[in-house]
From TrEMBL:
The keyword Membrane does not apply. Its cofactor is FAD; FMN. It comes from the Eukaryota. One of its GO terms (molecular function) is flavin adenine dinucleotide binding. It comes from Bodo saltans. Pfam families: FAD_binding_1, Flavodoxin_1, NAD_binding_1. This is NADPH-cytochrome p450 reductase, putative.
Length: 550
């Protein structure tokens, strides 16, 4: 039996999940499983791909991701052809801190059923907020899918492997045959040259946060710079990200196109098992590859952010051929950084504000983010390859409109852009800015700039320090404080807009609760249900926007 998988992704994770599903199904006895990007297959071909597994994420505020936009436009049309011969299964990727959680996965599932398609299994949902990320939700989905496709989980212990999708020798001999494994890259990327980098945090602060300026070539306020890959110390000039135009050596190929520091995929364990000549190691690999003992993989690999090279060194009895190993590496994914400069005020350079991601795993291993590390160590003249894209969550800015900006941590970046733009354009409308950090003098970003800007526009800055003078104050606490709450309610009632940016963990929910409380007490006469409805209406009207990242 054959089956097909279509993935729809913005930042690459759905592709990785799709490939994991494919290798799992092949290991369970499926003869062939083809993985393709959704928009490369027209809707009238979908029935031919049946049984079809669709893996799709949600972006923006419940919007379809980059590789699904054309398909979704077609599927939504009233004259979209029926699909009675389509057997399908949908797995959605999302983040439950967003108001429209897994919206596209749910919508797609419903729409395919409306068109007469037959759902093989209940739709699966993966949530970034789960301790094991989206992988946690995948387990139950895979189990029911295997049953629906009449495969056998028991066969999983077999060593059936799909052939490697990448062949190093062919890439070396014919570079033009190579396509970057991550599909949604624009073919044309741009080289960004660093003009300057300045550390914003004090030297005794635990985290390095930098203001980085690039030589500028015209962006608008809500533009997000997507950086993909860095030029390394030896000064190699990068070719366009999507393909190769000249010969490449092994190191270049690995560093430019693969994320060697990301956590190893589960399918790597399955692949290693097939080439392992030691019983104990094989048994352990089986546990790590299996979906029925998912917690093993999560604890050993996902939470430890253990990468493919580390895994290889811990299983020395696996003689995996290089093409199989290469095909199991995770492709380099784009990292997005909001612009913190304004087009009108910063004519020479554009800027981003980057926090170097550093954390300790549950077993105390120090880990560091790849792109933020490169950026926070970069020097003037260093080059980064990337492309410019519009932020999916655009706040439409009008001069007369009051603004409430909540930007703890690096969430300050888009706020700085908006405020500098407002000052350059001499806005009259009031702006409230909520800044959240640990302590003044340590990580209070752009403090002196706010003082200057307050002389030019009606800017009120409210600070929330979480490690200062023995108190833990967060932005949500400051929003509901007496005096501030009344002022915010009046701005909201006057048609003001709210923008919340920064960490996606707990903050957006707490802030929404705080705003709902403000609306309840000062706009809706104490009614909680009216306040919830009011905030939801603001969201619908594009006046309450959350743009957060993990
Ligand atoms: C729209 C948007 C705008 C953004 N704007 C900014 C911005 O202005 N400034 C900014 O600094 N960042 C911003 N980001 C985040 C940025 O894109 C990167 O995600 C961030 O810099 C980390 O990338 P990295 O390459 O350093 O880390 P990576 O090498 O990609 O590592 C990150 C991965 O590490 C893992 N991880 C992280 N923390 C832990 C932990 N505690 N335990 C276990 N695993 C963990 C997670 O799997 C995570 O995906 C934005 C993101 C989006 C989507
Ligand atoms: C800018 C942005 C907007 C997002 N919007 C939503 C959303 O509205 N609903 C949701 O459930 N998840 C949302 N997410 C979370 C993604 O769907 C989730 O991170 C997913 O794993 C990404 O998969 P991908 O890499 O295949 O695109 C958003 C993520 C980002 C970065």
């Amino acid at each position: 039996m054959n089956t097909n998988i279509l993935f729809a992704t913005e930042t690459g994770l759905s592709q990785e999940v799709a490939e994991t599903i494919a290798s799992y199904l092949v290991a369970c006895g499926l003869r062939k499983c083809c993985v393709r990007s959704m928009d490369t297959v027209s809707i009238d071909q979908w029935e031919l791909l049946s049984p079809l597994v669709v893996v799709c994420s949600t972006t923006g505020q419940g919007d379809p991701p980059a590789t699904m936009r054309a398909s979704w436009e077609h599927l939504k049309m009233s004259d979209c052809p029926d699909l009675p011969n389509l057997q399908f299964a949908v797995f959605g990727l999302g983040d439950s801190t967003y108001p429209k959680y897994n919206y596209m996965g749910k919508m797609l599932h419903n729409r395919l059923r409306q068109l007469g398609g037959v759902s093989l299994v209940h739709r699966g949902l993966g949530d970034e907020q789960d301790a094991g990320g989206v992988w946690e939700g995948l387990e139950a989905f895979l189990k029911s899918l295997v049953v629906a496709l009449r495969l056998s989980n028991e066969q999983f212990t077999s060593t059936a492997l799909a052939p490697p999708v990448l062949k190093f020798r062919s890439i070396i001999e014919d570079p033009s045959s190579f396509r970057a494994p991550f599909i949604p890259y624009p073919i044309k990327t741009t080289t960004f040259t660093i003009a300057s980098r300045k550390q914003l945090t004090s030297s005794d602060h635990f985290q390095n946060i930098c203001h980085i300026e690039f030589e500028r070539f015209g962006f608008d306020t809500s533009t997000v710079v997507t950086l993909h890959s860095a030029e390394d110390d030896t000064g190699i000039s990068f070719a366009p990200a999507a393909f190769l135009s000249s010969k490449i050596n092994l190191v270049e190929l690995l560093v430019r196109f693969f994320d060697l520091e990301s956590c190893a995929s589960r399918s790597l364990f399955h692949c290693l098992k097939a080439f392992c000549n030691d019983d104990e190691e094989r048994e352990r690999l089986e546990e790590l590859a299996s979906t029925s003992v998912q917690t093993d993989y999560l604890a050993y690999c996902y939470r430890e952010k253990r990468n493919a090279l580390e895994v290889l060194s811990e299983f020395p009895h696996c003689a995996i051929p290089f093409d199989y190993f290469l095909s199991q590496l995770k492709p380099m994914r784009p990292r997005m950084y909001s612009l913190s400069s304004s087009p009108s005020a910063d004519k020479l350079n554009c800027a981003i504000t980057v926090a170097h991601l550093q954390f300790s795993t549950p077993y105390g291993r120090a880990r560091s983010g790849l792109c933020s590390r490169w950026l926070c160590a970069a020097a003037a003249g260093d080059k980064f390859e990337g492309f410019v894209s519009q932020s999916p969550s655009r706040l439409s800015l009008e001069k007369a409109q009051p603004l409430i900006l909540v930007g703890p941590g690096t969430g300050i970046a888009p706020m700085r852009s908006i405020i500098r733009e407002a000052a350059a354009l001499h806005w009259k409308a009031p702006i409230y800015l909520f800044v959240g950090c640990r302590a003044p003098g340590r990580d209070y970003l752009y403090e002196s700039e706010w003082i200057e800007l307050q002389k030019e526009i009606k800017l009120t800055v409210v600070t929330a320090f979480s490690r200062f003078e023995g108190k833990k104050t967060y932005v949500q606490h400051r929003i509901v404080e007496s005096g501030t709450a009344e002022a915010l309610a009046s701005l909201i009632a006057d048609g003001g807009s709210i923008l919340i940016c920064g960490n996606s963990k707990q903050m957006p929910r707490d802030v929404e609760r705080a705003f709902t409380s403000v609306v309840q007490h000062f706009i809706c006469g104490g009614s909680e249900s009216d306040a919830v409805r009011y905030v939801n209406e603001c969201k619908r009207d594009g006046r309450y926007i959350t743009d957060t990242w993990s």
